[in-house]
Design brief:
single chain, about 190 residues, alpha/beta, 8-stranded mixed sheet, 8 strands
Length: about 190
């Protein structure tokens, strides 16, 4: 089992509101490069998406649950079919019906992640990423880095955060952005 974090990020490390769906003042920065910059399997998840499980925080899941059920095509079919775990203290099991194969986690998300036998793909959900990061559980980062500098917002790697040593597995241009894959370096 691996824990993989995927996300859109700016050159200065900001992950806040890449599509503008959260309504923040600087939101929508990823879409300035066109819809094709973010559509499809940009993170090259392939079989990992077929065999793994997606993990969302409440806000990201609510945004995705409004968008994905109505989409069509092969990637949308995969996103709608994959099991989804939602870390939330406010949503209920009834809410999970909004998007097929969604389950609201009961109990501690860290315990759930540690016990999950499948690969866990953490989508956006920065506060959740920071919790998992603090426990040193992340095995890989797949980041789509956009040529934007925002100057403020929530950063993937916060000041004063845990030290990490990663190795670059790959980097490739994907439209206006660069997809990087970094894995935890051998200890």
């Amino acid at each position: 089992m691996s824990i993989i974090v995927i996300g859109f990020i700016t050159l200065d490390g900001i992950m806040t509101d890449p599509t503008g769906s959260e309504g923040t003042p600087l939101g929508g920065w990823a879409l300035r490069h066109g819809r094709e910059a973010i559509d499809g399997d940009k993170f090259r998840l392939g079989r990992t998406l077929d065999d793994g499980v997606l993990l969302f925080g409440r806000t990201t899941w609510q945004i995705f649950s409004r968008l994905w059920p109505g989409r069509e095509g092969p990637f949308a079919a995969r996103m709608n079919a994959v099991p989804k775990l939602v870390a939330s203290r406010t949503l209920s099991g009834a809410d999970s019906a909004a998007w097929a194969n969604s389950t609201i986690l009961e109990g501690d998300v860290i315990d759930a992640v540690k016990q999950e036998p499948r690969d866990v793909i953490v989508v956006g959900s920065l506060s959740l990423v920071h919790r998992i990061m603090a426990e040193d559980l992340i095995d890989e980062y797949r980041l789509l880095i956009f040529p934007s500098v925002l100057g403020s917002g929530d950063r993937l790697f916060p000041a004063g955060g845990r030290q990490a040593h990663l190795e670059c597995v790959s980097a490739e241009q994907v439209g206006a952005a660069v997809l990087t894959r970094h894995r935890r370096a051998a200890r």
